[in-house]
């Protein structure tokens, strides 16, 4: 996976416009500053064979389709407004997206531009049109329409794309192919998959996206000692039984997964020289262990070393 990050936050305000124009001239991002608007860019770009993922915050900018690319007519652009408002123009058509809404744009219908005068937190996906068309009922009719806030497939897609950026082993071709297939299926579900396409997506890609989203949620809340199956399941709109089945498909239980994540984070924190003055008890509590004796026991069993042994490695 190829990745690129860029932010204007450390640039003086007068230099931001030229920095954005440089991105355009280098062919990295087709952004153009709007007149009399403050420019803000904070983006991450990840590219896999078959999908490009762009996410972050833009303000005071026009974002074009890059219509000078030789193969641009073969691409679809799927955008989600996570927060804020933007307007898309293509030919004589115009649509406005508010927070939580999404849209699909096809370059086959001509160049398009998305205008974001004020800050918009967004997700943008670029995929080959010929990979999505067989999965969707009337693809051309599904473009340049607002996909409502709360559409389940869009929510799953946004969460999955965020998780993809942090997934390890994406350079492995088989893992990469699975991720790309999942993204294609979720885009198709978001804009109207065929019956067959929906069935395939529900059986594999939806489950995979939910599991990755749940894993990301767990890692974001490890410090919550009381994080229960019921609470996590409720946040993701599934039953505890379904959540258990998602983990069982990977040969692990929910409880075991949470334990391993807490142990791995504790191990990293114990090795961090910046935390050398933090007590082992504080670190154990910070990663969600409420019982220091239990923490010491499971840590030693897993690493064949005590927390003190791991911490002392930094002092040798």
Report on this model:
The longest helix has 19 residues, at 173-191. Helix 4 crosses helix 5 (195-203). The chain is built from twelve helices and eleven strands. It folds into two domains: 2-220, Jelly Rolls (Sandwich), CATH 2.60.120.10; 257-313, Arc Repressor Mutant, subunit A. It is α+β, with helices and mostly antiparallel strands and 316 residues long.
Number of domains: 2
Structural class: alpha+beta
What do we call the CATH homologous superfamily of the largest domain? Jelly Rolls
Q: What's the arrangement of strands in the largest beta sheet? A: 1-3-4-11-6-9
What's the rounded overall pLDDT mean? 89
Which CATH architecture of the largest domain is right? Sandwich
Count the strands?
Answer: 11
Largest sheet: 6 strands, antiparallel
Helix content: 40-55%
Radius of gyration computed on alpha carbons: 22 Å
Number of alpha- plus pi-helical segments: 12
Unreliable runs: 67-71
Tell me the span between the first and last alpha carbons.
36 Å
Shape descriptor = globular
CATH topology of the largest domain: Jelly Rolls
Q: Any idea of the CATH class of the largest domain?
A: Mainly Beta
Write the element-wise H/E pattern from the N-terminal end onward: EHEEEEEEEEEEHHHHHHHHHHH
Proportion of beta-strand residues? 15-25%
Tags for this model:
316 residues; globular; alpha+beta; five-stranded antiparallel sheet; six-stranded antiparallel sheet; 11 strands; Jelly Rolls; Arc Repressor Mutant, subunit A
């Amino acid at each position: 996976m190829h990745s690129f990050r860029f932010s204007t936050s450390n640039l003086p305000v007068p230099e931001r416009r030229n920095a954005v124009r440089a991105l355009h001239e280098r062919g990295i991002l087709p952004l153009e500053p709007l007149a009399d608007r403050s420019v803000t860019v904070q983006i991450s770009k990840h590219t896999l064979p078959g999908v490009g993922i762009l996410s972050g915050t833009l303000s005071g900018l026009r974002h074009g389709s890059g219509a000078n690319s030789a193969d641009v007519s073969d691409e679809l652009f799927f955008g989600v407004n996570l927060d804020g408002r933007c307007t898309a123009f293509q030919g004589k058509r115009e649509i406005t997206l508010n927070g939580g809404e999404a849209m699909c744009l096809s370059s086959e219908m001509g160049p398009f531009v998305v205008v974001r005068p004020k800050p918009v937190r967004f997700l943008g996906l670029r995929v080959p049109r010929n990979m999505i068309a067989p999965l969707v009922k009337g693809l051309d009719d599904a473009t340049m329409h607002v996909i409502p806030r709360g559409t389940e497939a869009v929510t799953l897609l946004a969460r999955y794309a965020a998780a993809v950026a942090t997934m390890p082993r994406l350079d492995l071709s088989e893992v990469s192919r699975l991720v790309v297939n999942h993204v294609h299926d979720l885009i198709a579900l978001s804009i109207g998959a065929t019956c067959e396409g929906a069935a395939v997506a529900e059986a594999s890609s939806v489950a995979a996206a939910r599991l990755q989203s749940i894993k990301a949620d767990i890692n974001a809340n490890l410090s919550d000692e009381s994080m229960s199956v019921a609470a996590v399941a409720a946040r993701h709109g599934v039953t505890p039984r379904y959540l258990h089945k998602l983990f069982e498909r990977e040969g692990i239980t929910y409880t075991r997964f949470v334990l391993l994540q807490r142990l791995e984070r504790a191990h990293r924190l114990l090795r961090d020289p910046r935390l050398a003055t933090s007590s082992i008890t504080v670190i154990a509590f910070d990663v969600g262990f409420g019982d220091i004796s239990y923490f010491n026991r499971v840590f030693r069993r897993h690493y064949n070393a005590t927390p003190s042994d791991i911490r002392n490695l930094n002092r040798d």
